[in-house]
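Fill in residues.
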């Protein structure tokens, strides 16, 4: 009997079959593991060596990627306007940017002054609250008074001590060093201002570049399928377009649904706070809640926390009972909005396009949090893309194999059959005497 650790191969040489033994299976596994480790080390070393070039490439491509994302989001609007108004592609793009200009004009003319007034009011309200608490006599004030009384009792005059200290040589040298440091500080401040201006100019130029690239991408976005059809090889064209179509349904539906969801949540928060009596900051908190909704599970926090802070720090409420009563109303309103969003907006507007388990969403957000706000915003769309790819290249094949092997249609059926108690066989009929 052959050794199971040895593997054999047979090749045909002329009219004869020649059998020879290959490398021991354990040695093959060790060699394969070492080979993968060498490849991984080489990839890491190559990435470390090319990291400056990669960083420069990412910075260069960022405006174009942002323009591509905006073109992808707003392309259906341009197409809809084209069909409804019977406009050309240029006319549809110009109409979209006209809507942008109108929205920005309304924001700066009407909403921005209100927001500035509310932000100032919040700042002064918090400042007055802290000042009122600081005016109360504290332990530190009593300690300072006790120290001053002891100095007066001992005949020590602080002003004379300061004069003597100023006339000393050590203080003069310290003053000279301080003057030199002051000049350095002024130079550093001017350098900082110069760098801020340069960065601001870079941001403005990036914004202009995004707009220009977005216009050109929107004009030629309808040509993208034809370009991909030319580039992709014929043998893999159908599957590639099928995968891209599934990604479009998942990511596009999720993004557009979240934008509508954010608008509705912000609107409900504004009207809800206005109705319960928080009229002064209803607009500001509503905008914060709407923007927070773009990140899953963040909308209620962005709406509830500022409202509770206003209830606690503002001078609108005189007694603790009033603050507690209004805080309860804020919490009830937040819970109601969250329930409406979770059971109405999410299923109906966002839909089942993403089809992500809540645990997957939470894991994606935890991973995206390492990359800041942008990572939180992009976490779920990237998870949607990953789900489509995993399902296409791995999960569907495994699930089909499982169905063929077990005869089950889905996991729910398997759970039902597993939990269902086996039926006892019927009792045999009585035998005649």
């Amino acid at each position: 009997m052959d050794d199971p650790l040895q593997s054999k191969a047979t090749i045909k040489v002329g009219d004869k079959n020649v059998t020879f033994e290959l490398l021991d299976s354990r040695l093959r596994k060790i060699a394969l593991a070492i080979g993968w480790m060498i490849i991984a080390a080489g990839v890491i070393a190559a990435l470390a060596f090319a990291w400056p070039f990669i960083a420069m490439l990412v910075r260069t491509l960022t405006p174009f990627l942002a323009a591509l994302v905006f073109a992808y989001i707003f392309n259906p609007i341009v197409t809809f306007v084209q069909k409804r108004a019977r406009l050309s592609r240029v006319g549809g793009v110009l109409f979209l940017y006209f809507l942008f200009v109108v929205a920005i004009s309304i924001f700066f003319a009407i909403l921005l002054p209100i927001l500035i007034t509310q932000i100032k009011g919040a700042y002064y309200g918090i400042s007055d609250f802290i000042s009122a608490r600081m005016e109360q006599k504290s332990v530190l004030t009593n300690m300072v008074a006790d120290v001053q009384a002891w100095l007066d009792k001992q005949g020590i005059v602080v002003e004379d001590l300061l004069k003597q200290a100023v006339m000393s040589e050590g203080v003069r040298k310290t003053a000279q060093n301080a003057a030199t440091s002051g000049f350095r500080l002024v130079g550093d401040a001017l350098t900082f201002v110069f760098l801020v201006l340069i960065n601001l100019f870079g941001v403005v130029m990036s914004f202009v570049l995004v707009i220009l690239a977005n216009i050109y991408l929107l004009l030629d976005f309808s040509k993208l399928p034809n370009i991909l059809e030319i580039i992709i090889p014929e043998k893999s064209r159908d599957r590639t377009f099928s995968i891209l179509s599934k990604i479009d349904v998942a990511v596009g539906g999720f993004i557009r649904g979240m934008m509508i969801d954010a608008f509705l949540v912000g609107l409900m928060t504004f009207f809800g706070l206005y109705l319960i009596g928080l009229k002064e900051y209803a607009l500001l908190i509503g905008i914060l809640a709407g923007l927070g909704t773009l990140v899953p599970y963040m909308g209620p926090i962005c709406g509830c926390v500022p409202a509770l802070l206003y209830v606690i720090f503002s001078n609108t409420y005189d007694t603790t009972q009033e603050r507690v009563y209004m805080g309860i109303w804020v919490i009830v309103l937040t819970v109601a909005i969250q329930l409406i969003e979770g059971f109405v907006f999410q299923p109906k507007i966002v839909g089942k396009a993403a089809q992500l388990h809540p645990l997957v969403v939470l894991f994606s957000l935890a991973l995206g949090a390492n990359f800041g706000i942008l990572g939180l915003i992009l976490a779920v769309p990237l998870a949607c893309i990953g789900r489509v790819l995993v399902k296409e290249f791995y999960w569907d094949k495994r699930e089909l194999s499982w169905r063929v092997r077990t005869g089950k249609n889905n996991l729910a059926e398997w759970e039902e059959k597993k939990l269902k108690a086996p039926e006892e066989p019927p009792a045999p009929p009585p035998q005649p005497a």
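The chain has 13 helices and two strands.
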